[in-house]
DNA sequence: TTATTATATGCTCATATATTCATATGATGA
DNA sequence: TCATCATATGAATATATGAGCATATAATAA
């Protein structure tokens, strides 16, 4: 319930923040909480070196689990577990061909996000 | 040490992967390991709902700690801890004005990444 | 100086998560 | 059918991490 929020009046921090007008303006531009959660979950899925390795590799080419293991020099269960995470997050999709399962990115946004992130990293490395 | 990697020959999975030619092609497009680590660290910094809330808010306006607390309805130490994480990751910067410390994004990439991620989230919500 | 306000930080607990091993499942071919 | 290969999964363990409390620091004003 919002009672008072008279404009511009500086109130004490502990309760309401110092700049109610700024807060109000920012608040009106905030996404719904649910969307923020989904967004942080998306980034969380990128926030692990194994998964980023997987995703970068898949941004080059569809790959089977086995090849991913060789590429990342990691054990098969570790790779499979991370693939499951990525699949549950709807970031990758899979396709079975006989015994082999091929994984690929489920969306073009993913590759764009990764490239943009790398751009940032490289510039920071300066 | 690479000894053999004769072209196209399908080898057994456990050791070398099934498709050595594909692996080689992807491998040549992989960034250095260090960069992948930095990239996953970057995304890790986005991978928490508190931090994403902070970052989205800062993408609208520079804000002081106090206002962020009010905006996110979170306790001050929690917000400060996350701000420290973000600062160490060089994602936000701070500026002191008397007792008040204002935080803002340290780089335009950050806002772009967040918007692009949100685009993805909204489309998936379909 | 002391008091007050805004922010930072050390410590702890609880929880989340990544990897490993062992094993299960699924597909193929003998 | 059985054996083999590729992948998936359950359980256990180790590590990472977020939030809370208490308290420290920094700036200002009385």
Would you write up a description of this structure?
The structure is a homodimer of 126-residue chains. Chain A starts with 12 loop residues before the first helix and ends with a helix. Chain A has a domain of 82 residues: Orthogonal Bundle (Arc Repressor Mutant, subunit A), CATH 1.10.10.10. In chain A, 61% of the residues lie in helices and 11% in strands. Chain A is elongated, with a radius of gyration of 21 Å. In chain A, strand 2 and strand 3 form a beta hairpin. In chain A, strands 1-3-2 form a three-stranded antiparallel sheet. The longest helix of chain A has 18 residues. Chain A contains seven helices and three strands, in the order H-H-H-H-E-H-H-E-E-H. Chains A and B meet through helix 1, helix 2, helix 3, helix 4 and strand 1 of A and helix 1, helix 2, helix 3, helix 4 and strand 1 of B. The first copy, chain A, binds a DNA duplex (30 and 30 nucleotides) through helix 6.
